[in-house]
Amino acid sequence: MPEKQIIAVFGATGAQGGGLARAILADRSGPFAVRALTRNPSADKAQALARAGAEVALADADEPDTLERALAGAHGVYCVTNFWEHMSPERELAQASAMARATKRAGVEHVVWSTLEDTRKDVPLSDARLPTLKGKYKVPHFDAKGEADPVFAAEGAPTSYLLAAFYWDNFIFFGMQPRRNADGLLTLSLPLGGQKLPGIAAEDIGKCALGIFRRGPSAAGRRFGIAGDILSGEEMAAAFGRVLKEKVVFQDVPFDVYRGLGFPGADDMGNMFQYQQLGGKDFLRARDPVLSRELNPELQSFDAWMAANAGRIPRE
Ligand SMILES: NC(=O)c1ccc[n+]([C@@H]2O[C@H](COP(=O)([O-])OP(=O)(O)OC[C@H]3O[C@@H](n4cnc5c(N)ncnc54)[C@H](OP(=O)(O)O)[C@@H]3O)[C@@H](O)[C@H]2O)c1
Fold first, then answer.
1. Which residues pair with 78 in a beta bridge?
2. Residues 34-71: pLDDT tens digits?
3. What value does the mean pLDDT take over residues 87-103?
4. Percent over 70 (pLDDT), the chain
5. What distance in angstroms lies between residue 180's CA and the mean position of ligand 1's atoms?
6. Which residue has a Cα nearest atom 45 of ligand 1?
7. Cα of 11 to ligand 1 centre, how many Å?
8. pLDDT tens digit sequence for 119-145
9. What burial class does residue 44 get, using C-beta atoms within 10 Å of its C-beta: 0-12 exposed, 13-18 middle, 19+ buried?
10. What per-residue confidence (pLDDT) applies to 160?
11. Which residue, by CA, sits nearest to atom 8 of ligand 1?
12. ∠ at Cα 284 (117, 300), nearest 5°?
């Protein structure tokens, strides 16, 4: 049997990279082995991956010196940054740039970079429809990722660009599930401005990434926007209603109201939803369930995800 090619996975203890690590481990007869990268190899999640058959290695994107050894001998690298841990776009760009440079130094053949749009290309800072945030961003957690794309292109190993969609898991972990309004009616509240929302099961992102690695380095330079379904607020509310066995209505929250909700990152999230609305059909076209299903034949629809996760959605 030919020796397996190593895919080194940033974020292997998290949602995106974890999905990829599990997908590689489940693909026993496939061409790849997984090296799970983490800042803390002795932590429970890293140890669980080791028990499942992953190699575990130390890597800290804030410490570029740790990256060369972590990537040595790897065929591929999955790069993802976690904006929400620090909420600094400058730090996210520095982390992504360090990853990109390390992939080149290590002679990696194929990188998948989990990016998002630099929204300032579509909505310049002078455009008052979206408030400018943190001095020079419109959607900070998108913009820094998009700003890193040319760094991967110029200073990284051959790179494919993966654009993920809104995780449906936010309905479990991020408090976005339907809540009762003053009349006792279960209400799904999101600021969509009438736009549909591309969404995906977080676990499917890594499975799509595996599909990109399977296509090989010839997929470098290509952008893969992924989604499991693209649904209106009303369609999502109806799907909630079917599993909760109770009427759920959709409330389209004004963008300004959402930006003012006061939780950390509310302004960034509000701008994100408004950016998606301003993008109209172009934004929707950038995430393609058909392509996603080609990459990952197990891709879940929203109904399938809801059926599997109904018990995990917080209830009021
Ligand atoms: N939520 C959504 O709807 C959504 C949609 C699209 C894109 N995104 C993007 O997804 C990204 C987060 O990905 P996720 O959801 O997979 O994250 P996650 O589940 O919160 O896990 C974060 C991962 O990042 C790793 N990490 C953090 N800092 C690191 C560093 N300095 N060096 C090396 N590894 C580091 C952590 O590893 P250790 O702790 O083990 O070191 C962990 O595995 C965010 O940037 C967000 O913008 C989110």
1. 9, 112
2. 999 999 999 999 999 999 999 999 999 999 999 999 99
3. 98
4. 100
5. 31
6. 82
7. 6
8. 999 999 999 999 999 999 999 999 999
9. exposed
10. 99
11. 164
12. 100
- With bands split at pLDDT 50, 70 and 90, how would you rate the model's confidence at 11? very high
Per the CB < 8 A criterion, the answer to whether 204 and 296 are in contact is: yes
Q: Which residues of 115-147 are buried (b: 16+ CB within 10 A; e: fewer)?
A: bbbbbbeebeeeeeebebbeeebbbbbbbbbbb
What's the number of CA atoms in the CB half-sphere (13 Å) around residue 78?
37
Q: Exposed, middle or buried by CB within 10 Å (0-12, 13-18, 19+), for 110? A: buried
Cα 47 to ligand 1 centre (Å): 18
- Check whether 316 has a pLDDT greater than 80: no
- Ligand 1: atom nearest CA of 82 is 45
From the CA of 70, how far away is ligand 1's center (Å)?
Answer: 18
Nearest CA to ligand 1 atom 44: 82
Residue 227: both structure tokens together: 């989604």
Residue nearest to atom 27 of ligand 1 (CA): 82
Strands, E assignment, 52-196:
55-58, 76-79, 110-115, 159-163, 166-167, 179-180, 186-190
Closest CA to 295 of 169, 200, 168: 200
C-alpha 40 to ligand 1 mean position (Å)? 14
56 lines ligand 1 (CB under 6 A): no
Q: Are 21 and 49 in contact (CB under 8 A)?
A: yes
Residue nearest to ligand 1 atom 15, measured at CA = 15
Mean pLDDT for the stretch of residues 73-90: 98
Segment 262-308, tens digit of pLDDT:
999 999 999 999 999 999 999 999 999 999 999 999 999 999 999 99
For a ligand 1 pocket test, name from 60, 82, 145 the mutation site with the most ligand atoms within 8 angstroms of its C-beta: 82
> Is the Cβ atom of 13 under 6 angstroms away from ligand 1?
yes
10 lines ligand 1 (CB under 6 A): yes
**pLDDT tens digits along 103-118:** 999 999 999 999 999 9
